[in-house]
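Morning run. Coffee first, then this:
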Amino acid sequence: MPFVNIKITREGSAPGRSAATAEEKAALIKGVSQLLLDVLGKPMDSTFVAIDEVELENWGWGGLPVPEYRKQQPSKQK
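And here it is:
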């Protein structure tokens, strides 16, 4: 019984809106389940998928909160 946990950030979303719509989340669940069937032969009816949305202030990168890490990075040239 596979269990897949997808974590997505809410960054870039409007206040009060999830990072992904219900339709987008359904597509993620279906796609991951299909991938496990195609690659590993795991039946879709025994695959569990959980999606966690993470607020920007609840994750870090390089030992720092993400906003602090980004302040230390050189700006990207367009």
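The mean pLDDT is 88. Good start to the day.
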